[in-house]
Specification:
GO terms for molecular function: ATP binding. It holds the Pfam family LRR_6. This is NLR family CARD domain-containing protein 3 CARD15-like protein. Keywords: ATP-binding, Leucine-rich repeat, Nucleotide-binding, Repeat, Signal. The structure is a single chain. The protein has 812 residues and is α/β, with parallel strands linked by helices. Among the domains are: 227 residues, P-loop containing nucleotide triphosphate hydrolases (Rossmann fold); 63 residues; 73 residues, Arc Repressor Mutant, subunit A, CATH 1.10.10; 73 residues; 81 residues, no CATH class. It contains 32 helices and 21 strands. The strands form 4 sheets. The chain has an 8-stranded parallel β-sheet with strand order 11-12-13-14-15-16-17-18, with no helix packed on it. Strands 2-1-7-3-6-5-4 form a 7-stranded mixed β-sheet. Strand 20 and strand 21 form a beta hairpin.
Length: 812
Amino acid sequence: MMFVFYIFHLYVFSGTAASLMDLQICLRNALKNKYQELNEAHLSNSLLPSRLCFRPLNASVLQQQEFRFVDKSNLDTLLNFPPAQVARILSCDCKHESSKRTVITLGVCGVGKSTTVQRCALEWAEENWYHGIRLLFPLTFWELNVLKHKLSLIELLQTFYPELKELDVSTLNNNNVWFILDGLDEYHLPLNFSCRRVNDILEVSKVDILVTNLIRGNLLPKAHIWITTRHAAATQIPESFLLKVTEVLGFSDEQKEQHFRAVIGNVDLANKAIDHVKVSRSLDFLCQIPPICSIMANVLKKHVETVDKFKFNPLNLTQIYTNLVQTSNPVIVSKLGMLALRWMDQNNVIYEHDLKEGNISFEEASAFSKECPLVLREEKGLRNTTVFRFGQSSIREFLAASAEIDNMEANPLRFGRCQYLVEQALQNPEGKMDVFLRFIFGLIKERRVLESSNQLFAYTKKMLLENILSDSAIGLFHCLREYDSQVLLSEVKKFQKLNISPVSELTNMQWSFPAILSTEGAYLRELDLGYNSISDDGVSQLAEGLGHEHCRLKTLRLQGCGVTAQACMYLGTVLGYFWRLWELDLSRNDIGNDGLQHLADGLSSSKCHLKTLKLSQCSIEQKGTSYLATALEKNPEYLKVLDLSINMVGDEGANELFGKLDISKMKKLEMYHCGLTASSCVSIGEALKIESSTLLELNLSNNSLKDQGFERLCEGMYAWCRLEKLNSHSGFSSEESIICELDLSDNDLQDKGVKKLCMGLRSPRCSLEKISGQSLPFHSVTRLTQVDIAVSVCLCLCQHRAEQTASPVSSQ
C-alpha cells in the first residue's frame, strides 16, 4: 500500500514539475516575441540602463506637476535616496504581513518605467536574471481598459497569454510568482478597495475588481505584484498594502551626454549641443527625461549646425518645441492641439474613439506618427488594438498652449485671458498649469501676441514677488524667463544698490541670499553670517542661491545661527552637487544626529569637494558620527580639516570614523572634549606612523586619554610623524607619566616652543628620564632632576637668543 502511494505521489509531483516547466517555456517564448523590438535595442546597445532608488511615499507631494520632480529649483527634489537594483526590488523574504505584497515604482511620464519592467521581463524570459522568479506576468493598464466584459483571473491571463493552457491555483499561488501591472495612471477606472471580495481565481468579475482583490491578497495571497505609475495615481493604493516604494530617476549626467552623442553622431556638434543645454539649469534638469532629451538632441543638432560657430544663440524650451513641430503637417498639429486643450487633465494614451472626437482619422494619426515620432507614437497591443501617445506629456502641454494662443489671436481681450491663466496657476499649489502657462508665455513672444510693455508682465512679476516663498513662484519665474531670459535682473541690481527689499513681506536678508549668490558674474567667495538669527528658513533661501549656476562661493560660515537639522537637509542637498564650496562651519548649532545624516547625504557625493567641515558643539553623538564616517568612506579624497569638538561621539563613534576615514591624509583634526579614552588613540597612533602622513594639527584636549592613550600617540609620533601641533592637557603631567624619553632633534622649537615644554617639565609628576635634541645645550641627559631641567631650559633659551643676536638681520 505504501509503495502504491509513493508511486502515485511521484507521478503527481513529476507531472506538476513537468507542467510548470512547460508553462515557463511557453511564457518565456511569448515574452521574447512580445518584446522583440526592445531586445533589438538592447543588442544594439542603444538602450541605456534605468536608474532606480528606494524612497519614502509622501502623499502630500504626489499631486504636484511632474516637472517639479525633476527641476532642482525645488530643493525637496534634491534629496538623495538609496539606489535600487531591480533584483533587489523583486526580492522578498516573505516574513512581512500578508497584506504587504505590492511593490510600487513611481516616475514622471516618459522617464522609463515601462522600459524598466519590459527589460526585466525580457531578461527573465532569456534566463539571464531573476532566476528565483517562478512565473512573471506583465500586464498593462491601457490594455486592461479594452476588456469591458466580466472574466476570471485565469481567463484574464489567458487573454494576454493564450499559449498558457494549464494555469491553476497551485501553479499561481506561490511566493515566487510576480504580476507586473504597468501604467496605473493610464487606467480609466479608479481602484475601489472597498469593492466586493473575490477569492477564487475561477470566479468571474470586472477587471478592476480582479486587480483590486489581487492587490488586497484575496486572490493568490502568496503571489507578489509590481505596479508602475506616475506620481499622482499612486495615491489610489493604500500604504497598508505596499511592501516597497521605488522611483525611476531618468538619465544621469553621463547618460544625457551619451544619448546626445548617440543621436547627433558628430562629437563636436554633440558637445556644442550639450553646452547649449547646460547654460540653462531648467533644460539640463528636463534632460533627465529620455523623450525630452531626444527632442533636445534632435532639435539642437540642426540648430548648432546652422549657427555661426563663434556665436552662441541659446534656445528656450518653447523655441525647441516650436522647431520640433514646424516641419510637420500643420493641419494635424492644429487638430492635435485642440484635442490636447480638451485633454488637459487626461492621461497620455489616445484611443481611436478619442481621435474621432478631435476630427482626426486613424490613417492621419498613423501617418503623422511615422513622420514625427517624437511628437506622436503609435503602439499596438491586446486584440490588435492600436493606440497613440504624445511623445511626452509636455508635448501635450505645448500643443494645448498653441491651441490656446490660436484662440487668443482671434480675441481682442488677450490681456484679460492671460491674467486669468496666471491667477488660475496661483490658485493651484500643485502647479498643474505650470508647464502649460510656461509655453503660453513663450508662444506670446514667438508669435508677438503681446508687446513687452504689456501690463501682463508687470502683473506676473508682482505676483511672483508677492508669492516668492511659495512653490508657485518657481512656476511663474519659468514663465517670465520663457519670455525674457533677463527677468528680475533689474530688481536684483536695485536691491544691491539701495538695500531695499522689492517685497515688503520679505526681509532684506531673505532677498539678499538668492540675489547676491545667483547674480551673473558674482564674485563673492566668502560669506560669514556667524551669530546672526538666520534660522532654517534663511538657510533655505541661502541654499537656493548656492545652487545657482553663477554662484562662486567657497567659504560659508553659519556658526551660532540657530539652525537645526531641517537646515542641514537643504545644505546636504547643495553639497551633493555644488562642488565649488570648500569650507562649511556649522559650529554651535543644535543640528544633532539627524542634521549630520542630512549633511552626510551630500558629503558622500563625488561632486562634493568640501575641504573643511567644522561641527563643534552641535549635539552630535555616536550615531551621527556613524553617518559621517560612512559618507567620508564613499568620498574620502577632499576633506582635510574636521572639527568635532564638544560632541560626545565617544570611542565607538571615533573608532568607526577612524576605521573608515584615513586621517593620515588630513591636515587638522579637532576632537576636544569628545568623550574619548585610550581606546581611540590606537587608530590615531597608527595613522601617525604612516610615512606619507600629512596630519599637522591634532587636538585631543579634555579627553580621558590617560597614560595608556598618550603612549599610543607617542608610538606613532616616534616613527614618521610630521605633527606640528598636539594639544592634549594630559601631556607630561599625568599622575604616573610613563613617558621616559623624548627626542626633539631636527625640530625648530624656538623660544615659544621651549617655554611650552617647560610647563610640562616643571610638573612634580613629570618622570621624564631622558631628553635629547640637537637644538638643546645637551645631547643626552638621563635621570633629570627638576633643577637640571630648569637649568637646561634656561641655557637653551640664552643660547637661542644669543644666536639670534649674532646672526645678521634679514632683509625681510
